[in-house]
């Protein structure tokens, strides 16, 4: 399990390393564009099994910490779907990689 540390208070948010790698790419894509958005996820049962969200912008203090030493293979369709979701009023929804039907037509991630 990797950890995304958010803000000056370093709120620790745990994600599987593979999920965290895809989030890092999607988040950095949005931040390179100077875009702000909400990041939303479903909490683990150990912290109440609810939903949480944080506001992310170019000035947000973020630190991505991985438990494994290897960077996982990246699914570009998943990254694209995350970036597209971040542009909606609901913000970046942590979509399950297995539930992808493919990114909407005409969308892509700038690299």
Question: Can you walk through the features of this model?
Answer:
The chain is α+β, with helices and mostly antiparallel strands and 111 residues long. The chain contains two helices and six strands. The strands form two sheets. It has a three-stranded antiparallel beta sheet with strand order 2-1-5. A three-stranded mixed beta sheet has the order 4-3-6. A hairpin with an 8-residue loop joins strand 3 and strand 4. Helix 1 crosses helix 2. The chain is globular, with a radius of gyration of 13 Å. The two termini are 26 Å apart. The C terminus is likely disordered.
Order of helices and strands: EEHEEEHE
Mean pLDDT: 87
Q: Helix count?
A: 2
Classify the helix fraction into a percent range: 10-25%
How big a fraction of the residues is strand? 25-35%
Which structural class best describes the helix and strand composition? alpha+beta
Oligomer: single chain
Q: What gap, in angstroms, lies between the N and C termini?
A: 26 Å
Q: What is the approximate shape?
A: globular
Spatial strand sequence of the major β-sheet: 2-1-5
């Amino acid at each position: 399990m990797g950890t995304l540390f958010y803000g000056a208070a370093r709120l620790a948010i745990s994600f599987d390393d593979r999920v965290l790698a895809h989030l890092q790419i999607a988040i950095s894509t949005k931040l390179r564009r100077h875009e702000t958005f909400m990041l939303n996820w479903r909490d683990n049962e150990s912290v109440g099994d609810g939903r949480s969200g944080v506001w992310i912008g170019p000035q947000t203090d973020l630190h991505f910490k991985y438990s494994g030493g290897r960077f996982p293979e990246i699914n570009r369709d998943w990254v694209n779907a995350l970036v597209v979701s971040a542009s909606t009023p609901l913000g970046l929804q942590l979509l399950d990689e297995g539930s992808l039907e493919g990114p909407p037509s005409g969308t892509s991630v700038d690299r």
